[in-house]
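Please check what follows.
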Amino acid sequence: MSNTPSLFTLVSALAGASAYAPVLPASAAEPIPRQAVADIQRARVEIYCGHSWQAVAVIRAASQQLRASSAAVPAETFAALDEAAWLARHDQYMRAEQALDTALVGIASPGAVA
């Protein structure tokens, strides 16, 4: 009796192994939604124009879009968005813009936005 595997055994083993999908890292699950990034940038414009309540609404919309997506978003990004909304609501525009910059840095990575 021979201990070498038959050609049929090798082919069926390769076919079985190819049926398994590779496990992707969490960061590759889904890219950051473009609309969320656009909303964060729009919030900066609203803050610049002195429209604090509109900025708060846009920041909240961006945060909701990020939470609804399955993209890997750092917790610091959500904290920065919450801080930006609070600061805009209290007319602290420069600090609000800095918080929005922090949020954008938290979600910006090559190929992360779709």
Summary: The domain at 30-107 is CATH 1.20.120 (Four Helix Bundle (Hemerythrin (Met), subunit A)). The first helix runs from residue 7 to 18. Helices lie at 7-18, 34-48, 52-68, 75-89, 93-107. The chain has five helices and no strands.
